[in-house]
Amino acid sequence: MKKSFCTRLGVALACLALCTGSASAETGGRWESEYEAYGRKITVDVEICVPEKEQIPFLAVAPMEELPAGETEKYREYFGSMDRSGSESAFSSKRNRIIIDYSDHVHHPDLSNAEKVTTPNRTLTEFDRDTAYTEDNDLTVGEAEQLVNGNIGMVYPSVSFRVLDVVANDRTKYRKTGEKLSDKGYYELDCMQVFDGVPLAGSVHGAYRRRIKHDFIMADYGTAYINATDRNHFGGSYELWNVTGEPGMPDRLLSFDEARPAIEKLILSGNIRRVYHVYLGYAQYDMPEGSPYEYVLAPAWVFRVGWMDDPEEDTATEKSVNGTDLAEGCIYLPVIVNAVSGEVTYPLDEGEGRMLLPEGCITQLTQAE
């Protein structure tokens, strides 16, 4: 019989060794430390991403409204004029989702036949925006990000995104012969919506292991998932938040050194096996009933991690069919440390109210009214 999590956590905190490391939130830098948990060595070497902002206000947000029919038709014609693939619709607007999909050529019918073809790829959680990573394609990550923003900017000029994760795909080829079907590789981009220079780095709806359909939908708000080859071959979807107000300014924000111990505790408990990103940015929270706002973005330290529910379980070593596995056998999710209250999301929490803005933040918002 397995021991309870609380018992294992107590043993972990009593017996596991912690190596030192430090960094300044105000200047960014890197978090470089080593930890030991359940006989495993966990090495953390990750950039600390801090926006160039002296203050980060609370933002009230709502899902972007669907475009009127006339506007949708205008952009359908615009992006449709760029498409030669035979797609029925190069543009659509449904609720807060915008889809843009066009190509300057008809795709080979075997490109989508996974039994016949393969596309070797690799995941990049850290990358140089001035570097091209895909096969026979000189498009850099920064240029791909410009395409992401240029296309959505045609519809919403004030909306922008930043690339979070990249999958660099090589040219698709036949499994048996190795013959190449595509002329160049392409990027799969996981992007964050940016608000006045501050990225939406995570949502409470994506921070918990037990989720319902509503959580999966909400976790995608403020994100974009894009396939980009070049300016003539682009496709993906944007899920947009719209800012409806600025209900207050936090009194102070936690520094990285104040937020880090919460994550170290989960590393030592055996649950966090790797840290991929550290962002001081926004996290999306729900508001309690009776509040003037339904959703709020609050300043937070967001740690994108590889998580395991069972501290004693080893991670899977198998790779995906095309050779990449972002979380290396773990669950890839955000652990959010609220930068105002210090409250931490715990992925196994199933309690009511776990999606709500922490009480310390609500108090500050009430005082600001």
How is the topology of this model organized?
Layout: H1 5-15, E1 30-37, E2 40-49, E3 58-63, H2 69-80, E4 91-94, E5 97-103, E6 117-118, E7 121-124, H3 141-155, E8 160-169, E9 173-174, E10 186-195, E11 198-203, H4 213-219, E12 223-230, E13 233-239, E14 241-248, H5 256-268, E15 272-286, E16 295-307, E17 331-338, H6 359-368
Parallel strand pairs: 2-15, 11-15
Antiparallel strand pairs: 1-2, 3-14, 3-16, 4-5, 5-13, 6-9, 7-8, 8-10, 10-11, 10-12, 12-13, 15-16, 16-17
Summarize the structure.
The chain is of the alpha+beta class and 369 residues long. The protein folds into two domains: 180 residues, no CATH class; 182 residues, no CATH class.
Order of helical and strand elements: HEEEHEEEEHEEEEHEEEHEEEH
Overall pLDDT level:
89
Structural class computed from helices and strand pairing: alpha+beta
Global geometry: globular
DSSP helical segment count:
6
**Gyration radius over CA:** 22 Å
Roughly what fraction of the amino acids lie in strands? 25-35%
What is the strand tally?
A: 17
Low-confidence stretches: 1-25, 319-324
Largest β-sheet summary: 15 strands, mixed
Q: In whole angstroms, how far apart are the ends? A: 53 Å
Q: Helix fraction?
A: 10-25%
Please give the domain count.
2
What do these coordinates show?
With 369 residues, this protein is α+β, with helices and mostly antiparallel strands. It folds into two domains: 5-60 and 245-368, no CATH class; 63-244, no CATH class. It is built from six helices and 17 strands. It has helices at residues 5-15, 69-80, 141-155, 213-219, 256-268, 359-368, and strands at residues 30-37, 40-49, 58-63, 91-94, 97-103, 117-118, 121-124, 160-169, 173-174, 186-195, 198-203, 223-230, 233-239, 241-248, 272-286, 295-307, 331-338. The protein has a 15-stranded mixed beta sheet that branches. It has a two-stranded antiparallel sheet with strand order 6-9. The radius of gyration is 22 Å and the shape is globular. The model is unreliable at 1-25 and 319-324 (pLDDT under 50).
